[in-house]
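Retry 2 of 3 after timeout on previous attempt. Resubmitting structure tokens to design endpoint.
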């Protein structure tokens, strides 16, 4: 297999919800100061390593949009066409959104929290339409088919709504020779990676994505991965992955 295309994926920088260890999902949390710095650092790394892009894709959540903008600042490519879609949003965390992950582990147990966070097909408890956190109340989802607004999602649900966007919008861009950058979220990217790497439902459980660390996928002509790597040292990546995994511990 030889590399024909390079795709760069990045999870947004640390958000204020990540900082406070709260389940975030579709809540539109902003970047924290650390998250801003992480995104700037990632932009500098891409610049130093000579990465250039022709198009970018992101979600409709500001932590991913702002991360992308900070990369554009560093790469001096503000002109880049940017396509935003709710289909790249974070996995919807249902009624858990806004709750502290460690506190939730203390109440329900670490195993239950790990199941909610990482099982492939068990969704967290649903959010009611009457709840003030219901996404249907937000302007950004006004034009969306209201029946598509999730009450909660497991990773399988997330994959099912992300892949149509991959096939319809991202694949044609890659195949037309455009250098693609995707700024998204821990779980929307885990879903995409599961698909690209053909990972089993069990294997994906232990995959955690660090904030704002560029992940390069080299793809062959059929868009199958030839290799993938983070633009960061192995130690840095391992520490950042462990940090994400440990967020669900009771502590
Ligand atoms: O809270 C969330 O929305 C996600 C990403 O921050 O968290 P987790 O890693 O627990 O799936």
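Retry 2 succeeded. Sequence:
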């Amino acid at each position: 297999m030889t590399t024909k295309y390079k795709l760069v994926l990045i999870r947004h920088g640390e958000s204020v919800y990540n900082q406070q260890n709260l389940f975030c999902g579709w809540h539109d949390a902003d970047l924290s100061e650390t998250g801003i710095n992480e995104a700037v650092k990632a932009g500098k790394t891409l610049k130093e390593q000579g990465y250039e892009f022709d198009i970018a894709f992101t979600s409709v959540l500001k932590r991913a949009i702002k991360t992308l903008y900070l990369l554009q600042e560093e790469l001096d490519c503000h002109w880049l066409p940017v396509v935003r879609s709710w289909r790249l949003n974070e996995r919807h965390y249902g009624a858990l959104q806004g709750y502290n992950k460690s506190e939730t582990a203390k109440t329900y147990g670490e195993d239950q929290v790990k199941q909610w966070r990482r099982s492939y097909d068990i969704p967290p408890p649903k959010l009611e339409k009457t709840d003030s956190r219901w996404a249907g109340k937000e302007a950004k989802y006004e034009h969306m088919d209201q029946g598509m607004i999730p009450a909660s999602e497991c990773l399988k649900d997330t994959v099912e709504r992300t892949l149509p966007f991959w096939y319809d919008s991202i694949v044609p861009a890659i195949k037309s020779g455009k250098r693609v950058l995707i700024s998204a979220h821990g779980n929307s990217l885990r879903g995409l990676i599961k698909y690209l790497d053909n990972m089993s439902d069990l294997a994906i459980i232990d995959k955690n994505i660090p904030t704002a660390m560029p992940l390069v996928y080299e793809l062959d002509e059929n868009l199958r991965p030839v290799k993938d790597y983070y633009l960061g040292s192995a130690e840095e990546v391992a520490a950042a992955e462990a940090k994400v995994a440990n967020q669900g511990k009771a502590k």
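Attempt log closed. The chain has one domain: 5-125+179-248.
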